[in-house]
Design a protein that fits this description.
four-stranded antiparallel beta sheet
Length: 986
């Protein structure tokens, strides 16, 4: 076999010539190679096409970098270091984002899950941390290894995590329960304290095999479900294998050993097909995602690319890459950092070295297949199973559990599409259905969750807040009533159960989290009616019953109000002082459309501010109802359409999200809440329509967007941003008006409104550019009229001028002139009005604050302090004349200066009466000033006479009419009277 040389380039310098563990990665398009060394604190991002170019250096660690990992979408780079920290960067730019977690000892290995939303990190510390990549919270810590953890790998099917330590023990963890399902002791070598080469585990791309370097200089393949040894790859390695890497399609594998060899294997044929000898031991390898190449790096920090690693006569390593169903790339969120107790059905016996013999249970794979073909399930969906590929039958039990399927069928019965004209039954938002022997949610919201685990004769209820700082730690409680619904806020929780016979009446119980008095918990029992929905707010508790009664209680248990509703309740939610209730307005239409009505009550004021029909997609039912974090009423139907209520157009529902453009056939959305820009939901795989309570569900953040029609400009994103900004601006202005009416300070909302207007203008300018490029000039003219700031209009003029559209520039100029004229007309006060009003001087002062000040130097000056509201006229709140305006760029400052000049010119447009009065007063003041000058001169002369230095000058000077003391007093009184008159006129 001909040996080809590989050119190695130095990326990291070794310390004192001693080798260290180095890492190498490819990006998605094969454009960049990322390298790191445990003896170097920097990360190098190399140009794969031009390796001679200097690399991009990322330096944020204080010590050597021991591990690298790229997210599956190749936008996020993670690094672990000897300095105990794990950091995230943007890729390929390398900009530092966050320190996502810290350990107490060095990190040795990192791995992203398939969706990129979870990062597993491990090292010399005890335990593997599963970290949420959005907020850095720790979802779970997997403990069980006794040595340093040197290798971890997520199963491509997102069911398992494999790990191996420095003493040769490999473990397979079930992510659903967090338990180890297999422990394989002593299958890998013991590396001791030499971390220049480490044990590793790796799943095949299809997730069916787990590869682990063995003690016999080979690689052993283990079965995915049973952990049984299937076969091994054994060839010409004369020393133990220290690293391995699967090709993208799983047909080939590259292995490097302590013997400084790299072998390429045909996995199906179990034989090596090519090899390469290196000067130093290769510590890490990575297959190029596109093409046929293998990147390698040795212990001295030198990297190279082995082109055509697979002989050209054989199939490419990137051909026929397995495609697994993947979640979308939206950010996910873990709320709970505490470890959950695994469910009883979550694991089987661990398989160790001695797990052999007659008493060995059936394999995990066989149990799953038998469980999947349960009789009841087979009767209902046998045809669907026949169409599924064999790999689907190997999924874990919860996805095909009989109770899950039964509940799914029960759920479908409540949907009008499959059940004819049946009215939707009442439900509690955030509640999941009962699964036999499993924990479920009584309530799940943006604030926290209430979970229940049923036992024989009683239930165990736990209350957890997502953010522990937002609520107290609530002890668990034992439930003997059989509660099936609950609601939660920061002050307490309310529970209710349906009627279960004559002896077990429907019960409502309120449990405050803190109270100054003992025995503050209370309960109510209902005869001949049962509670269908509950809600909580500020100082009140509400329950809607089967008799269509809305019962409102105080937090202390006082029965305050009882109202009759117009129809059967569907659901109820609370937010501060507001209670929203949804009821049936009439039976469903023949077209299977539910006719629902919503009512919003203000409990504090005892009023009903809103009421109307609740819109739904034809043929759907209501699946979630609640308030956003800002208090906006929202609904979500079974077809995946989110609607939010607005006061625009007399009260309307805006469709802010449609799952039809995102939803995949195997996904269902379980809504938790929303804010101004994001929808928080849990993505469930079919046939599940709700998540399990253990472990805590993963939240997906989806962007809100209007379901717009396909634009002829192809600018749907810009148009959506335009409508969203308009909606936000309207909400802010409405809030400002309400706060002004209540006499509250609105300065913060003024700034937010200004920023929203600026963002809206930027979006409009981009739309104008799109219209100009698409030759939609009429639409561009419509858009320029919607610009709020004068600077933005001038920017639009510059834009169309640069695009060589002179006619459009002239129209834009005309629009700007018309706007300036309107502003000028609106700022000028008619003279006729001033003549008829005795307060004309005050009206003028509102435009230019003018006042007279007499300084100590006896000078009277006219001081003008003009102030003008320079914000866009669309702002509802006018800024104070003395309030400094928001800093803007130089162009905006110039515009304000020009408007200030205009304001000074408006000052000269006073009516004749005021102008004459002002002139007469100033003339009188000038006379007083002259008199004062003469008086001062006279005093000076008197002083000279006393000193005997100016006698001749005194005899020759004419008499001074103001020199006498009586005249001086007269002039002083005249001056004082004039000054008082000026102040009175002002």
């Amino acid at each position: 076999m001909k040996i080809r040389s590989i050119k190695m380039r130095e990326a990291h310098k070794s310390s004192n010539g001693v080798g260290s563990f180095c890492s190498v990665l490819w990006d998605q398009q094969g454009e960049h190679i990322v390298t790191a060394s445990s003896s170097d604190s920097s990360i190098c991002i190399q140009d794969a096409f031009l390796p001679a170019n200097p690399p991009k250096i990322v330096r944020h660690h204080r010590d050597g970098v021991t591990a690298l990992a790229l997210s599956p979408n190749f936008t996020c780079l993670a690094s672990g270091s000897v300095d105990h920290s794990v950091k995230l960067y943007k890729f390929p730019g390398g900009e530092f984002e966050t320190n996502i977690t810290r350990f107490t000892l060095p990190i040795r290995t990192l791995a992203f899950n398939r969706s990129g939303t979870m990062l597993a990190a491990a090292g010399d510390d005890e335990g593997i941390k599963l970290i949420n990549t959005i907020d850095g919270s720790i979802a779970r810590v997997l403990k069980g290894h006794r040595g340093s953890i040197t290798g971890i790998a997520f199963d491509p099917k997102s069911e398992y995590l494999a790990s191996v330590d420095s003493i040769g023990t490999a473990m397979i963890w079930e992510l659903q329960s967090g338990k180890t399902i297999h422990v394989l002791k002593g299958i890998a070598r013991v590396i001791g304290s030499d971390f220049s080469s480490m044990n590793i585990v790796s799943w095949s791309p299809d997730g069916e095999l787990l590869a682990v370097p063995s003690l016999k200089n080979d690689v052993v393949m283990y079965d995915r479900d049973t952990a049984e040894k299937l076969f091994s790859l054994r060839g010409d390695h004369v020393q133990p294998i220290c690293f391995l890497s699967w090709s993208p399609n799983g047909k080939y594998m590259a292995t490097s050993g302590l013997d400084r060899q790299v072998l390429i294997w045909d996995v199906d044929k179990k034989q090596d097909i090519d090899r390469q000898k290196f000067d130093n031991r290769v510590t890490c390898m990575a297959w190029k995602p596109i093409g046929n190449a293998l990147a390698v790096i040795d212990i001295m920090g030198k990297y190279g690319v082995w082109e055509s690693a697979v002989p050209s006569s054989m199939r490419s390593p990137t051909a026929n890459v397995p495609v697994l169903g993947s979640k979308n790339g939206h950010g996910l969120l873990f709320f709970d950092e505490e470890e959950e107790n695994p469910s009883a059905s979550g694991s089987l016996s661990d398989l160790g070295e001695d797990s052999h013999g007659e008493s060995e249970p059936f394999s995990r794979k066989r149990l799953r297949k038998q469980h999947s073909y349960d009789d009841d399930w087979e009767e209902d969906v046998k045809e669907e199973f026949e169409l599924l590929p064999k790999a689907e039958l190997r999924k874990k039990a919860p996805h095909s559990h009989r109770d899950s399927s039964d509940n799914k069928r029960n759920e479908l019965k409540s949907v009008p599409i499959s059940a004819g004209q049946k009215m939707q039954e009442a439900f509690q938002p955030g509640t999941t259905r009962q699964l036999l022997g499993k924990r479920r949610f009584l309530c799940y919201s943006m604030l926290g969750s209430i979970t229940v685990m049923e036992h024989d004769g009683y239930s165990h209820i736990e209350i957890d807040f997502h953010d522990t700082s937002s609520g107290p730690r609530v002890p668990a409680m034992t439930d003997y009533f059989g509660f099936t619904m609950a609601s939660l806020n920061k002050n307490g929780s309310v529970f209710a159960n349906p009627c279960k016979g004559e002896k077990n009446m429907s019960t409502l119980m309120y449990r405050p989290f803190s109270s100054w008095a003992n025995n503050s918990e209370w309960s109510m029992r209902f005869e001949e009616e049962e509670v269908r929905a509950v809600a909580l707010g500020t100082g009140w508790v509400a329950a809607v019953t089967s008799c269509n009664f809305l019962r409102i209680f105080t937090e202390g248990g006082l029965q305050r109000h009882i109202l009759s509703l117009d129809g059967p309740v569907v659901t109820a939610v609370g937010y501060k002082d507001e209670l929203a209730v949804v009821t049936h307005a009439s039976p469903p239409l023949p077209s299977n459309e539910q006719i629902l009505e919503f009512r919003v009550f203000n409990i504090r004021n005892g009023i009903q501010p809103r009421r109307g029909r609740l819109p739904l997609t034809p043929g759907s039912c209501l699946s979630w109802f609640g308030f956003s974090e800002e208090g906006h009423l929202s609904s979500f139907d079974s077809t995946g359409v989110l609607r939010v209520f607005t006061n625009q157009y007399g009260g309307s529902w805006l469709p802010l999200f449609s799952a039809s453009k995102l939803k995949k056939p195997e996904e269902n959305y379980w809504v938790v809440g929303l804010n101004t820009s994001k929808l928080f939901c849990v993505i469930c795989k079919s046939p599940d329509s709700f998540p399990e309570a253990t472990p805590k569900p993963i939240l997906t953040l989806l962007d809100l967007s209007f379901p717009l029609a396909s634009s002829d400009l192809g600018a749907e994103n810009l148009e959506n941003e335009f409508i969203m900004n308009n909606m936000h601006l309207h909400r802010i202005q409405s809030t400002i008006e309400e706060m002004e009416a209540a006499g509250e300070d609105t300065s913060l909302l003024d700034d937010e409104a200004f920023n929203t207007e600026a963002a809206l203008d930027r979006c409009i300018l981009r739309l104008i550019a799109s219209c100009c490029n698409g030759d939609k000039l009429v639409r561009a003219t419509e858009l320029v009229k919607l610009l709020a700031l004068e600077k933005s209009v001038k920017g639009a003029i510059k834009l169309v001028t640069a695009l060589k559209l002179p006619n459009l520039a002239e129209r834009f100029n005309a629009i700007l002139e018309e706007r300036l004229n309107k502003e000028t007309t609106g700022s000028t006060i008619p003279a006729s009005t001033e003549l008829k009003c005795d307060t004309s001087f005050n009206a003028q002062a509102a435009l230019t604050k003018t006042h007279f000040t007499v300084e100590s130097s006896k000078k009277l000056e006219l001081v003008s302090s003009p102030s003008l509201n320079l914000l866009a006229p669309s702002l509802t709140k006018k800024r104070s004349l003395e309030e400094p305006t928001k800093d803007v760029d130089a162009d905006t400052e110039n515009a304000r200066a020009r408007k200030l000049e205009m304001a000074r010119e408006f000052k000269n447009a006073f009516d004749l009466k005021n102008a004459k009065k002002l002139k007469d007063e100033k003339d009188k003041v000038d006379e007083v000033k002259d008199a004062r000058k003469l008086e001062n001169a006279n005093k000076l002369e008197d002083g000279e006479d006393k000193n005997g230095e100016a006698n001749k000058v005194t005899t020759q000077r004419p008499s001074n009419p103001f020199a006498k003391s009586s005249n001086n007093k007269q002039n002083t009184s005249l001056f004082d009277s004039l000054k008082k008159k000026v102040k009175t006129d002002r």
